[in-house]
Amino acid sequence: MTQQSVATSDKLDAAVLKVAGVVVLGAIMSILDVTVVSVALPTFQNEFDASYARVAWTMTGYTLALATVIPLSGWAADRFGTKRLYMVALALFTIGSGLCATADTIGELIGYRVLQGLGGGMLMPLGMTIMTRAAGPHRIGRLMAVLGIPMLLGPIGGPILGGWLIDTASWHWIFLINLPIGVVALIYAQVALPKDAPEPSESFDFVGMLMLSPGLALFLYGVSSLPEAGTFAEAKVWAPMLVGGALVVAFVLYSFKPRHPLLDLRLFSNRDLTIASVTLFVFIIAFMGAGLLFPSYFLQVRGESTLTAGLLMAPQGLGAMITMPIAGTLADRVPIGRTVPFALALIVAGFFSFTQVDPQTSYWLLGGSLFVMGLGMGGTMMPIMTSALRTLQAQEVARGSTLVNILQQIGGSVGAAVMSVILTNELNGSRLIPGAVDPSGKPVTEAGLAIASRQRPELLQQTPVDPSLIERGLDFAAKAFAHTFWVAFALVVLTFIPAALLSRRRAPAQLDDQQAEQLKTPVVIH
């Protein structure tokens, strides 16, 4: 694609800010959507009478779709043009949002979320490409500061907005809210973005894509089916896991053959990139997986409204807002091997409180713990990802960024699936109430009834129940959450092992202009 002329000044002029407005609008939709849906999972359980592991697929399916299109976006931008493709991504995301609001079953909602993810996955990498070409690589730092706004506000505003919409209207509005924003963004993009000039690009690895994406989806589907099946012997558990695992292994073996593979695994010959990727992958499985459970604890065990649950999650975002810019500055001056372990220690310190939760744990303690965890998160993710890319050659940066982004999305998907499986299995171990069945004919457990009574107190008025039974159920449910948090806590502690191997040598201060220009697929937090 032809390079747009850029100003030589380091300041972002009006023309660049006009383009940046389009990108920020798209980023806000994409990032807010992830955090908004996180507080809605218990609502989906009630609305669709589905297990936690099942409704978690509304998140897992979305992130898998993101991982599918991230490598496609760089190739397609050159082939079809960034403006045209960005508007297609906006349209897909907006249409997917509208369809999500019409879902009558959990299966439909998951399918529409995948469609949303196909659009959302292209918004950030395409937006970064558009902004880089509009402003020039020498102003990458200022551009990232502009894009940092939705990244920082998303974890704070998303749960609060989602909770407010669910409490005052209905769950449908967490998706309908995207429709007017999407229409405005489409009109804005048509007016503000420069005209496309597509050109031939390198070949796209469709064979690799047909192996990796279905392979991951099948494997995670098998894992997520385990709580309902209760055993690995069920065909719906082992069959998709086996086929999915075989496809992923086949992709790994195949990926060393094409000149331009979907994921360039040859980059793992770079020690610094490998160590950073392993550290990030283990951390994201633990932190993102457990992150979905925090609002569920407030909703299901403590009986809070979705708005209150969103407000209770805000300290984590505030903590990240404080340390993320500081960590970005330090990453240019201090080797991450000397800073990241301290950030991880903050996360471990904050996380420990959640391994001890019960039905009466102090909100001051949990809020303070989330704030400390946020401080650690802000000093962990961005420094690891950006420092890994600094060690690559100029021609490797775009492929390395794609690799790290996809590992991040896969880690989030694995984390969501694994943690939901563990929690569901723990809750299924609760004592059955003799003779009690739900409307679908399934036996009712003490924990299940206690959680239902927290979310719908009118149930106890319709059918009087021994208060001690509800108390036992809540204690059991709290212990189920605590046991799941212990698994996530152990994984975060495990992250110290690869983190100890992170480089302690001083890295180059910044990407040079040629490397920055290669950065077509940015590292972003979803």
UniProtKB/TrEMBL annotation:
The chain crosses the membrane at residues 12-32, 52-73, 85-104, 110-131, 143-166, 172-191, 203-223, 235-254, 275-294, 306-327, 339-357, 363-382, 403-423, 480-502. InterPro entries: EmrB-like, MFS, MFS_dom, MFS_trans_sf. Gene3D superfamilies: MFS general substrate transporter like domains, Multidrug resistance protein D. Residues 19-507 form the Major facilitator superfamily (MFS) profile domain. Keywords: Cell membrane, Membrane, Transmembrane, Transmembrane helix, Transport. It comes from the Bacteria. It holds the Pfam family MFS_1. It is found in: Cell membrane. It is a multi-pass membrane protein. PANTHER family: BLR6921 PROTEIN, MAJOR FACILITATOR SUPERFAMILY MULTIDRUG TRANSPORTER MFSC. This is DHA2 family efflux MFS transporter permease subunit. It comes from Micromonospora parastrephiae.
